[in-house]
């Protein structure tokens, strides 16, 4: 079946099948968070992006294959409500942006800096540090050698705009700058965008709107 990226809380997962990587998207919790389970097809090693809520559902998605690691995109509570339970059940390593780790109540085993590589089996993800939604938000880029890139943006980029900066002009200026220079300036239009809430999008779909986002200030 063709991947759409449209999921709902309590509904089925959607699976994006790439040559080297399987990406399973599920929606969990009262804030309709997206969680993404990545599985290396060569090794079956698995990595979870944002143990946001509903540990039972997330562990069911993980299945019997085990979970090597969990990456938390940022410190906001709706993105780590199930982290403690998932880690306790699986023994997974925890990753988070260095400047957000102190705001996450589960210890971060591996603090992440801009440009760091996070592996799931034979697949490499590159972390980019974007400042503005939180001090230590990270996005993960998978540069698929067989196709276009894929980027997991947490709450830094959505269809229609960047993440909430709470009416703070300095935070917005920082986030829009980092999104432009570290995402739009280096990734092609075909790049698939997997956000922390809601529907997926692409860099090409959002790129024409950057000037209006800057003009409106959010």
From TrEMBL:
CDD domains registered for this protein in UniProt: metallo-hydrolase-like_MBL-fold
InterPro entries the record matches: MBL_Glyoxalase_II, Metallo-B-lactamas, RibonucZ/Hydroxyglut_hydro
SUPFAM superfamilies per the UniProt record, alphabetical: Metallo-hydrolase/oxidoreductase
Gene3D superfamilies: Ribonuclease Z/Hydroxyacylglutathione hydrolase-like
Domain Metallo-beta-lactamase residues, every copy: 32-197
Protein name in UniProt: MBL fold metallo-hydrolase
Organism of provenance: Streptomyces thinghirensis
């Amino acid at each position: 079946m063709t991947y759409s990226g449209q999921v709902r809380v309590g509904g089925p997962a959607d699976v994006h099948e790439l040559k080297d990587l399987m990406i399973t998207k599920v929606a969990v919790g009262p804030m309709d968070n997206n969680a993404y389970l990545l599985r290396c097809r060569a090794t079956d090693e698995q990595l979870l992006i944002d143990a946001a809520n509903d540990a039972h559902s997330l562990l069911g998605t993980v299945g019997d294959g085990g979970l090597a690691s969990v990456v938390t995109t940022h410190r906001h509570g709706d993105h780590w409500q199930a982290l403690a339970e998932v880690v306790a059940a699986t023994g997974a390593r925890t990753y988070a942006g260095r400047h957000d780790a102190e705001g996450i109540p589960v210890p971060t085993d591996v603090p992440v800096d801009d440009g760091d590589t996070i592996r799931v089996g034979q697949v490499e993800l590159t972390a980019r540090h974007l400042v503005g939604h939180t001090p230590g938000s990270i996005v993960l880029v998978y540069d698929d050698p067989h196709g276009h890139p894929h980027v997991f943006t947490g709450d830094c980029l959505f269809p229609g705009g960047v993440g909430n900066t709470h009416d703070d002009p300095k935070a917005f200026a920082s986030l829009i700058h980092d999104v432009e220079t570290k995402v739009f300036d280096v990734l092609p239009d075909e790049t698939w965008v997997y956000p922390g809430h809601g529907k997926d999008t692409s860099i090409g779909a959002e790129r024409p709107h950057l000037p209006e986002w800057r003009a409106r200030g959010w």
